[in-house]
Design a protein that fits this description.
By secondary structure, this protein is α+β, with helices and mostly antiparallel strands. It contains 10 helices and 46 strands. It holds the Pfam family TIG.
């Protein structure tokens, strides 16, 4: 049974502060050593990069690649200092993955995301993958290590931060870089913003010596969520009569609080000298999501107030930033079956443990939120592209990024009315680092292994439109530990997913078909059943084969069968061969199988009479595959559906059939193109409006010359 963990409750003030302090310390320790991204040392980044420069983002433009598969962003950098690489360019192009073109948007869950005005040190490699880019600078690059390829400056404080590193001063970063390169840096252009940092430090010392002008007395709520239009009310003094250049800041959940993020200007609802009202954001000015921790208020003069009490943000709804506003994307019925069909690419089809681990993680989300995901037929495509296919694949570190365990690519489209804008997920792709030492389960990971199911659970959270949080036990915390597993969802994870589903089930003004709930999840799964398979081993026998691991308390297995996968009957019992901490294999033969399609599963009965189930598996009689059945062949005259003819064509992967309808004179009267899926639901053609008489229906499966035939129909 899936377990839910409550992370927070109504906690007294002092306990809240202590609890969060412990959580924040734990989260930063985890982030330094054991993340969803593997930390890359400064030494490695310097060695692997062709170019290391200090620079500023001065402009950016999104563009499609040559094949129109993915959207990228061209960021133009003005370099100030060179630490490595013979670059004398006045401008350097840095290509980042993802971006927006009109209402089309691609978001890569682990990609570096830059904003104009940001400064820092870039670790870059020359890129030749894309020949035509908007930059036209002569030097086109990509960051080594994706997010870890940029150490961002905080110009107000004179400090520098990356995902896992922090430096108390920019000069401290210079010192470490020159120690790694063994040479002094070259100044390419004057960085005027950095020259003002000593003055800022002096100003801050003066502010600390004088009474603090800005004070936070209280705020509410103290336990909240981000990206959900939750209004944070801050009470205090000295905020200023208007916002001006002032801002509210939250810890950044995308780096466990190394940096701060600010809401979009449209998120501020009220700003007076004594009170601020602002939406808690998941789409922010500098990228990143609001996370748990102290909040800050900065007035127009740069005075800063920090709350004594932390805010706890339990979950975050991913938002789309568009025209300086934030919008909540929704999930839709994109496959005609209520949601999204997921296809395994060839690179993962060869690894059954990976497929099973992914299925378990997917089923966990389905069981708590009823999100409509399903595993469809495999695909021969092994590339992540905007192609209306949600693909799961392995990819090399050069593709996903050095140090990245896995990433999810969410693709969006949108439309606007006179009063509102809506974005929806058209598809999502997932790329898994092929060089990681994975533990696929159900056994726990050991030593330096990463738990595959835990990472898949996290990445599917992104597909569910949830963002990172700073709560170590939550699955959307961006860091995991080596040899640790989190294969269950916390209560906040479930609450966030349920909110996304609630937004996705209703009608929308864009006329897109909303998602339908998936009520077919296997929601009481046995942790001992490792694999289960079923196949026709003779025309009149189906063999069910399963393996278990760490079988200690199981008494017996009841083999169950179903026509629909919903209602089950018991067809046999197999006694347990345990207890055994290792792997055991079992076989059961059904000598009276169903004629075409059937589902099998195990009811696992324990010594204390409790029970759980295995995942269900489907088996198709090979004799039934690619045999066209048409009914009725005597078609009634009239309307109201009376002219419909139904067709079934059982397949294991999608099949495209072309139908030609001839009258008895040999004249072509109608054509039909139908796609039969491995869901194997009947399709129909409409003969309404045709004269009574005999017709010949000729059919052919596309690209299969040996298929096809003719069927006679009579229209009454």
């Amino acid at each position: 049974m899936h377990r839910l963990y409550a992370l927070t409750a109504a906690i007294p003030h002092a306990k809240t502060v202590l609890l969060f302090a412990l959580l924040l310390i734990a989260s930063r320790l985890m982030a330094q050593d054991n993340p969803h991204m593997v930390p890359l040392s400064l030494e490695e980044r310097v060695q692997k990069a062709d170019i290391v420069v200090e620079g500023e983002v001065i402009s950016q433009q999104s563009f499609w690649d040559a094949r129109h598969e993915n959207i990228y962003t061209s960021n133009i950098i003005r370099p100030y200092k060179s630490f490595k690489g013979n670059t004398n360019s006045e401008r350097i192009e840095v290509i980042t993955e993802g971006g927006s073109i009109g209402f089309k948007k691609h978001v890569f869950s682990s990609a570096l995301e830059l904003r104009p005005g940001q400064q820092g040190v870039f670790f870059l490699n020359r890129q030749q993958q894309m020949q035509r880019t908007p930059g036209n600078t002569g030097t086109s690059t990509m960051a080594y290590g994706s997010q870890q390829g940029f150490v961002r400056y905080n110009l107000h404080e004179g400090k520098a931060y990356s995902v896992f590193d922090s430096y108390n001063s920019v000069q401290a970063l210079y010192k470490e870089l020159t120690e790694q390169t063994g040479q002094d840096y070259r100044t390419l252009a004057e960085n005027k913003a950095l020259k003002s940092i000593p003055a800022l430090e002096h100003t801050q010392q003066q502010k600390q010596a004088s009474p603090q002008a800005v004070t936070i007395r209280s705020f509410s709520p103290q336990i909240a969520s981000a990206g959900t239009e939750t209004v944070l009310t801050i009470n205090g003094s000295g905020f200023g009569r208007t916002r001006g250049e002032g801002a509210v800041e939250f810890l950044n959940a995308d780096d466990a609080g190394q940096t701060f993020v600010q809401p979009l200007p449209s998120a501020y609802l009220l700003w007076t000298d004594t009170q601020i009202k602002v939406y808690i954001p998941s789409a922010t000015l500098t990228g990143g999501t609001a996370g748990s921790g102290p909040i800050r208020v900065i007035d127009s003069s740069g005075n800063v107030a920090v709350s004594e009490v932390p805010i706890v943000i339990e979950y975050a709804y991913s938002n789309i930033g568009f025209d300086n506003k934030a919008f909540q994307p929704v999930l839709l019925d994109r496959d005609g079956l209520g949601g999204y069909s997921i296809h395994f690419a060839p690179s993962i089809m060869s690894r059954q443990p990976a497929r099973e681990g992914f299925r378990r993680a997917m089923n966990t989300w389905i069981c708590v939120s009823e999100v409509n995901w399903r595993i469809a037929e495999p695909t021969l495509k092994d590339v992540a592209a905007d192609d209306d296919l949600s693909i799961i694949r392995y990819a090399s570190p050069s593709v996903v990024g050095a140090g990245v365990l896995a990433r999810t690519i969410s693709r969006y489209e949108g439309c606007a009315s006179s009063t509102d804008t809506l974005f929806w997920v058209t598809e999502f792709d997932m790329e898994i680092n092929s060089s990681i030492d994975w533990e696929y389960g159900p056994a726990p990971p050991e030593d330096r292994e990463f738990d595959f199911e835990t990472v898949m659970l996290h990445e599917l959270g992104h597909a569910h439109q949830l963002s990172h949080v700073i709560l170590p036990r939550a699955v959307m915390f961006y860091a995991i530990e080596f040899a640790r597993l989190y294969r269950d969802l916390s209560l906040p994870d479930v609450t966030g997913a349920s909110l996304v589903m609630a937004r996705s089930l209703g009608e929308n003004f864009c006329g897109e078909t909303p998602m339908a709930r998936n009520l077919d999840g296997d929601c009481n799964l046995s942790i001992e059943v490792y694999t289960i398979e079923a196949e026709f081993t003779s025309p009149n026998a189906v063999t069910v084969l399963w393996t278990t691991r760490n079988e200690i308390l199981i008494d017996e297995f009841i083999v169950q069968r179903s026509v629909s996968g919903v209602e089950w009957e018991d067809i046999g019992v197999v006694a347990s061969n345990g207890p055994n901490p290792g792997e055991l294999t079992y076989t059961f033969v059904d000598n009276a199988p169903l004629p075409e399609i059937a589902y099998y599963r195990l009811k696992v009965v324990y010594n204390n009479t409790s029970f759980s189930f295995s995942p269900r598996v489907r088996v198709i009689n090979p004799a039934s595959i690619r045999r066209l059945r048409v009914y009725p062949t005597l078609v009634n005259q009239g309307n109201n559906g009376e002219g419909l003819v139904y067709l079934t064509y059982i397949v294991e992967t999608n099949a495209y059939l072309e139908f030609l309808l001839y009258d008895m004179k040999g004249q072509l009267v109608r054509t039909f193109d139908l796609t039969f899926t491995n869901n194997n639901t009947p399709l129909s053609i409409d003969l309404s409006g045709l004269a009574g008489g005999m017709y010949v229906l000729k059919w052919q499966e596309r690209n299969i010359e040996s298929s096809g035939g003719t069927i006679k129909l009579v229209k009454l």
